[in-house]
Amino acid sequence: MSDSARDILRELLAEALAGTNANGVTPQVPPPPVAAVHRPSTWEGVRPLEGDGGLEPVTIGNDDDLNRFVRDLFARPDREAIATGRVRFTLGAAPPSSATRVERGAVTERRVAAAAQAGGRLVLGPRAVLTPLAREKARALGVEIERES
After folding, report:
1. CB within 8 Å of 62: residues ≥ 6 apart
2. pLDDT per residue over 84-98, tens digit each?
3. pTM
4. Is 42 exposed, middle or buried (0-12, 13-18, 19+ CB in 10 A)?
5. Contact at 8 Å (CB) between 128 and 102?
6. Which of 8, 54, 78, 116 meets the CB 3.0–4.6 Å disulfide criterion with 48?
7. Cα–Cα distance, 63 to 145 (Å, whole number)
8. How far, in Å, are 6, 83, 88, 115, 131 from residue 92 at the CA level?
9. d(CA 116, CA 102)
């Protein structure tokens, strides 16, 4: 390494250790929380409606239920109450899921995806083998895996 390169490296390290960049500005680490910056000082949080607390239970068991819920939101006359937080939603009891049973053989990603469509649960028999990619796919899709002995 040449002497001029060493000199430049020393200068850069000295600036970095001093805590300033080339403009003389000290970076703020960590940055302030986003909520503290964007939330107005008059914000009081979410206030539910009188009576039932403004909570509406919603049951979402699959993609079709989610799409139906979003379409229903757009059709509601009380969109302003939803936007301001006076009407809030809570997850209701999920419908009972049907289990996909595999007695033997390899359980692949394709089988896990099919189980997710059917209800999100796999029951593996004693002679069934779960591949590592299938295990990752199940984790990503939220498919519950149960082993029988």
Report:
1. 117
2. 888 888 877 655 557
3. 0.37
4. exposed
5. yes
6. 54
7. 20
8. 65, 21, 13, 22, 33
9. 14
Question: Would you say 131 and 112 are in contact if contact means Cβ atoms under 8 Å apart?
Answer: no
CA angle (107 as vertex; 106, 111 as ends), nearest 5: 135
Q: What angle do CA 119, 121, 127 make, to 5 degrees?
A: 140
CA atoms within 13 Å, Cβ hemisphere of 83: 6
CA atoms within 13 A on the CB side of 28: 3
Kindly report, residue by residue over 58-71, the tens digit of the pLDDT. 877 777 888 888 88
DSSP-derived 3-state class of residue 124 = strand
